[in-house]
């Protein structure tokens, strides 16, 4: 049961559109906090909270470079999971249409 609980906690970390966007943006390259703030159009503290949740779940890692903190994808296999979810979207949309 502990394994299922941990899996549930990890999946909860993905349960926000901004965090999904952060994950997908890290497929391409490492990014600094300022890039997330600009792209998401939210304040630094909000981005910091999202990054903390993703980091604690094990999806991303960070490193300090000068005054900036850079984030990278720690688990590239998440792309396969996200691709799987993407294939489900048309199916679930058609099932919800009356």
List keywords for this structure.
98 residues; alpha+beta; three-stranded antiparallel sheet; Arc Repressor Mutant, subunit A; single chain; globular
Number of domains: 1
Number of strands: 3
The secondary-structure class comes to alpha+beta
- Describe the main β-sheet briefly: 3 strands, antiparallel
CATH level-1 class: Mainly Alpha
In what range is the share of β-strand residues? 5-15%
How far apart, in Å, are the first and last alpha carbons? 38 Å
- CATH architecture, by name, is Orthogonal Bundle
CATH structural fold name: Arc Repressor Mutant, subunit A
Averaged pLDDT: 93
User: What is the succession of H and E elements?
Assistant: HHEHHEEH
Shape: globular
Oligomer: single chain
From the alpha-carbon coordinates, what is the Rg to the nearest angstrom? 15 Å
- The low-pLDDT segments are none
Quick one: CATH superfamily? Answer: Winged helix-like DNA-binding domain superfamily/Winged helix DNA-binding domain
Pfam family, one: HTH_5
Organism: Chitinivibrio alkaliphilus ACht1
InterPro entries: ArsR-like_HTH, HTH_ArsR_DNA-bd_dom, HTH_MetalResp_TranReg, WH-like_DNA-bd_sf, WH_DNA-bd_sf
GO molecular function, one term: DNA-binding transcription factor activity
Structure explained in plain terms:
The protein has 98 residues and is of the alpha+beta class. The chain has a single domain (2-96), classed as Winged helix-like DNA-binding domain superfamily/Winged helix DNA-binding domain (Arc Repressor Mutant, subunit A, Orthogonal Bundle). It is 62% helix and 14% strand. The chain contains five helices and three strands; from the N terminus they run ααβααββα. The protein has helices at residues 2-12, 17-25, 33-40, 44-57, 78-96; strands spanning 31-32, 60-65, 68-73. The chain has a three-stranded antiparallel beta sheet with strand order 1-3-2. Helix 2 (17-25) packs across helix 4 and helix 3 (33-40) crosses helix 4 (44-57). The longest helix is centred in the C-terminal third of the chain and has 19 residues, at 78-96. It comes from Chitinivibrio alkaliphilus ACht1. Residues 1-93 form the HTH arsR-type domain. InterPro entries: ArsR-like_HTH, HTH_ArsR_DNA-bd_dom, HTH_MetalResp_TranReg, WH-like_DNA-bd_sf, WH_DNA-bd_sf. Keywords: DNA-binding, Transcription, Transcription regulation. It holds the Pfam family HTH_5.
């Amino acid at each position: 049961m502990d394994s299922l609980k941990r899996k549930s906690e990890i999946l909860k970390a993905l349960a926000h559109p901004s965090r999904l966007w952060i994950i997908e943006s890290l497929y391409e390259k490492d990014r600094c906090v300022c890039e997330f703030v600009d792209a998401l159009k939210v304040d630094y503290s909000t981005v910091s909270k999202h990054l903390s949740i993703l980091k604690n779940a094990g999806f991303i890692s960070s490193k300090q470079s000068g005054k900036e903190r850079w984030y990278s994808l720690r688990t590239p296999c998440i792309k396969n999971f996200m691709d799987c979810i993407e294939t489900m979207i048309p199916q679930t949309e058609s099932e919800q249409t009356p």
